[in-house]
Amino acid sequence: MAEPRARGRPKSFHDRTEQNTIQSLDRALMILKVVSEAGGLTLSELAHRSGQSIPTVYRVLTTLQSHGFVEVEEPGQLWHVGGGAFRVGSEFLRRTKVVERARQPMDRLMRETGETSNLGVEHRDRVLFLSQVETHEAIRAFFPPGTLSAMHTSGIGKALLAWYPESRVRQIAAEGLATLTPRSLATTEALLADLAATRSRGYAIDDQERAEGMRCVAAPIFNAHGEPVAGLSVSGPAFRMALDDAPAIGARVRAAADTVTDATGGRMPG
Fold it and tell me: The pTM is what?
């Protein structure tokens, strides 16, 4: 009789004590994160930001460099994320079929509205942008893949939150509602009221809540259980995207999001 296949994780999988972590790997990944967030730092700057010694950081960087995860720029000896990190990170997108199915609707949204279209998901109580189709306008919104944003100041974030259970919304809000602009929703009550309006009209509006001078209209994508798992949005400068334009843009964004819901086997919530 064949032996049962291992499940891929030991019984101690949920044990995060020091004895079950590899400290050198943990340190290397932390340094890689510092490199990715900065975009060009010297060895001494990386050591300072990571809180590690220069020899330790150098050993980590040379190891990561041998696998293509970091690169060093001459002159200046500035360290950057390498192509190896991109290739590994791209595997996340490959297993997320919503990215592939959303591409054509996003292209169509950009052509119809003349503004940038975006795709994002929730990741650890924040919005993670997965894909973008940029407008050809000189002044435009820009959220490269991998960008993280607060849920309550993002059109996609509010589109997702609007269909989350209220208990989950309150839990996320309890972690803090950062005020990024004077228009940011700073209280749980204000956020809940905005989410109720979002459900009523079928799309969310970020009215210069993340960045002054920029607006966004977004709608959710649902899975087979009717749960929001991703969001599509159109974003652009407020002087081109007036609030009066929101209903027309919202109808297009909602239709595009519904198309992706259907294409991925999802359904609208009951």
Answer: 0.71
Decide: 152 and 158 in contact? Cβ < 8 Å.
yes
- Alpha carbon separation from 31 to 43, 92, 97, 172, 256 (Å, rounded): 11, 21, 30, 28, 39
Q: Which of 90, 92, 71, 72 is nearest to 82 (CA)?
A: 71
The conformation of residue 41, written as its DSSP 8-state character, comes to B
- What's the token pair of residue 8? 């891929």
**Cβ–Cβ < 8 Å for 155, 147:** no
Q: Say if strands 126-133 and 148-150 run parallel, antiparallel, or are unpaired.
A: antiparallel
Contact 192, 229 (CB under 8 A): no
pLDDT in tens, the chain (270 residues): 444 444 554 454 444 445 556 889 999 999 998 998 877 899 999 999 999 999 999 999 999 999 999 999 877 789 999 888 877 876 666 656 899 899 999 999 999 999 999 999 999 899 999 999 999 888 888 878 888 999 999 999 999 999 999 999 999 999 999 999 999 999 999 999 999 999 999 999 999 999 999 999 999 999 989 999 999 999 999 999 999 999 999 999 999 999 999 998 899 997
Spatial distance between the Cα atoms of 241 and 251, rounded to a whole number of angstroms: 14
Other CB atoms within 10 Å distance of the CB of residue 49? 15
d(CA 42, CA 145): 25
| Number of residues assigned to the chain | 270
Helix-strand-coil split of the chain, %, nearest 5: 45, 20, 35
- Distance from C-alpha of 5 to C-alpha of 126, rounded to nearest angstrom: 35
Helix residue ranges per DSSP H, the chain: 23-38, 43-50, 54-66, 83-94, 97-113, 155-161, 166-174, 188-201, 246-263
| Residue found by looking up tokens 């967030």 in the block | 37
